[in-house]
Amino acid sequence: xxxxxxxYVEKKEPFAVxxxxxxxxxxxxxxxxxxRVRVFIRYDVENISDEVFARACRTVFSEPPVxxxxxxxxxxxxxx
Length: 80
Known about the structure:
Number of strands: 3
Radius of gyration: 15 Å
Order of helices and strands: EHEHE
Distance between the termini: 35 Å
Structural class: alpha+beta
Mean pLDDT: 91
Strand order of the largest sheet: 2-1-3
CATH architecture: 2-Layer Sandwich
CATH superfamily: Phosphoribosylformylglycinamidine synthase subunit PurS
Helix content: 25-40%
CATH topology: Mth169, Chain: A
Number of helices: 2
CATH class: Alpha Beta
Low-confidence stretches: none
Largest sheet: 3 strands, antiparallel
């Protein structure tokens, strides 16, 4: 215990309402065409056991049916 772990949570594509709203705002207000906007929530977690951390990732920080969870790094495709 004592180490800081960073996780990122992103809504899966069908549930990414905030990202779609932000994409529309960028397009309408700024006149910038973007293919995709991704919104992440970052959590820094420390002083909990591995077991509690694993459970919290699935129950506190994310909802597995609607969220993608990334530990330490974000999955960004090449060129994007």
